[in-house]
Design a protein that fits this description.
It is built from 1 helix and 8 strands, in the order αββββββββ. The chain is α/β, with parallel strands linked by helices. The chain has a single domain, classed as Cupredoxins -  blue copper proteins (Immunoglobulin-like, Sandwich). β1 and β2 form a beta hairpin. The chain is elongated.
């Protein structure tokens, strides 16, 4: 009888360990991905972006709408903070973040995934526009 009790206790403990291992453990669930965000940038002929600073989350899908409210053409690219704005070009666009050239009164749009944390700049690369102040800051947290 003692041997049977020992066997039963062993089977019970083995079953309990297997059950607990199947129910838990493993890797923790991945953090929730941030919801996509749409940001509309108003481009005007006074060479300013509205808004001038935007904050997003790393890994967040960002939909950029360039609303060209002026008569001049504008574009919007995302570039590193080390790019010299006066000489920035479409080739400086990071992560495919380049709306392209948008004529006055029209809109352009693009979607990209926000890069790792840090500060980036968005620039209008039409000649003279960035030097005139058409530069903003994208903060990625």
């Amino acid at each position: 009888m003692k041997k049977l009790n020992t066997i039963l206790i062993f089977l019970f403990l083995s079953s309990a360990v297997a059950f607990l291992a199947a129910c838990g453990g493993g890797e923790p669930p991945a953090p929730a991905k941030p919801d996509p965000v749409t940001i509309t940038f108003a481009g005007t002929d006074d060479f300013a972006w509205d808004p001038g600073t935007v904050t997003v989350q790393s890994g967040q899908e960002v939909n950029v709408v360039l609303d060209n409210q002026g008569a001049l053409e504008h574009n919007w690219i995302l570039a590193s903070k080390t790019v010299e704005v006066a000489t920035a070009s479409d080739a400086d666009a990071l992560y495919g973040a380049n709306v392209g050239y948008v004529q006055g009164g029209e809109t352009g749009e693009l979607t990209f995934v926000a890069p790792g944390p840090g500060e980036y700049q968005y620039i209008c690369t039409v000649a003279g526009h960035a030097a005139g102040g058409m530069v903003g800051t994208l903060i990625v947290e």
